[in-house]
Design a protein that fits this description.
Blueprint: H1 19-32, E1 35-37, E2 43-45, H2 48-65, H3 68-76, E3 78-87, E4 98-102, H4 113-120, E5 125-126, E6 128-131, H5 144-156, E7 158-159, E8 163-165, H6 176-181, E9 184-186, E10 190-196, E11 199-205, H7 216-221, E12 229-232, H8 239-245, E13 249-252, E14 261-262, E15 266-267, E16 281-285, E17 288-292, E18 309-318
Parallel strand pairs: 3-18, 4-6, 5-7, 6-8, 8-9, 11-12, 12-13, 13-17
Antiparallel strand pairs: 1-2, 4-18, 10-11, 14-15, 16-17
Length: about 325
């Protein structure tokens, strides 16, 4: 099992406050105030009730049109995709390193989803599992159901180096303790390093940058110049900063590849402020490779049209 001791930027001398305390206090304040913060400044109140009302109207319309059950069946059909990723700078000891990438399960929106994931992955082993946020559908309230489903998933997977995760815009700061208690290492604007035969693979993870952006996310990326680095960020919206920092591989989710799309897979809503063209699949920006996971689950209404939920198995190759 890898040593996931956090690499946290130090505070000035004489300041006893840990960086995680700063993060938790700020995140809790944003959550309780229903604030959405954006890069380059700007805060606004998020009116959740209006959004929830629109979701209910959409679900009602699907049921009236007789489309809801079809959309639900679509959402329950998960694809398993294996992708080889080549990097000239990949340390030799990590050639063939396998990563299971899961994103956006929203467990409380589709009960039993964790069992479907385990069925698709039965008998497989991975070097590392990374989770890129949105473990629940609800935006406030109890988390027990979500944490129980997540723990069943973790207990059922075979992973040599363990689990790393970041939070999404549907997740709250109260999830950190139970997730780490079940063996998942949360990266809250932090980085960790895997070591093999003197080689290093660095993983940096930030808090959600769609609703809860702070400059702590940028500070976390500054370590990317030190080693071959993979970034875990809930949405693709920090792609430019990550590439500029020297990140080699950017893994994210958030968009569900549109979830409800026109024929041909063209998204109606992408739910991104920047990088809207990066809402699905594999992409490249400069020297950085990125993958936007279509997500395991669904957001808002448990349906999909012209998209599929996906489980990604990534294999790092040197070359």
């Amino acid at each position: 099992m890898a040593d996931f001791s956090p690499r946290v930027p130090p505070l000035p001398a004489g300041v006893p406050l840990h960086a995680r305390h700063m993060w938790a206090a700020n995140r809790f304040w944003m959550e309780t105030q229903n604030l959405v913060t954006k890069r380059y400044g700007g805060k606004r109140k998020q009116h959740w009730y209006a959004l929830l009302f629109l979701m209910k109207v959409f679900e009602w319309a699907l049921r009236v049109l007789g489309l809801f059950e079809r959309g639900l069946r679509n959402a329950q059909e998960l694809s398993l995709r294996e992708i080889d990723l080549k990097f000239a700078a990949l340390p030799a000891s990590f050639d063939g390193f396998t990563i299971l990438h899961l994103s956006d399960p929203h467990f409380d929106g589709m009960p039993g989803l964790e069992d479907k994931v385990l069925e698709r992955l039965a008998g497989q082993k991975f070097d590392l599992c990374v989770l890129t946020g949105d473990y629940r559908t609800e935006l406030h309230g109890p988390i027990h159901e979500t944490m129980a489903a997540l723990e069943r998933l973790v207990r059922g997977l075979s992973v040599r180096e363990g689990f790393l995760a970041v939070l999404g815009n549907h997740d709250d700061c109260h999830m950190v303790a139970p997730m780490e208690a079940m063996g998942i290492r949360l990266l809250l604007n932090e980085s960790v390093t895997l070591r093999r035969a003197g080689d290093r693979l660095q993983i940096v993870g930030t808090d959600d940058v769609h609703y809860y952006y702070t400059d702590q996310a940028l500070h976390a990326l500054e370590c990317a110049e030190d080693a071959f680095t993979m970034a875990l960020i809930h949405s693709p919206e920090l792609y430019e900063a990550a590439a500029d920092a020297g990140v080699a591989l950017y893994l994210c989710g958030h968009t569900h590849a549109g979830q409800v799309c026109l024929p041909g897979g063209r998204a109606i809503l992408r739910h991104l402020r920047t990088g809207r063209h990066l809402y699905k699949g594999q992409w490249r920006y400069g020297k950085m490779v990125g993958i936007t996971n279509a997500g395991v689950g669904t957001s808002g209404v448990p349906v999909r049209f012209n998209t599929r939920g996906e489980i990604l198995v990534l294999r790092l190759r040197r070359g």
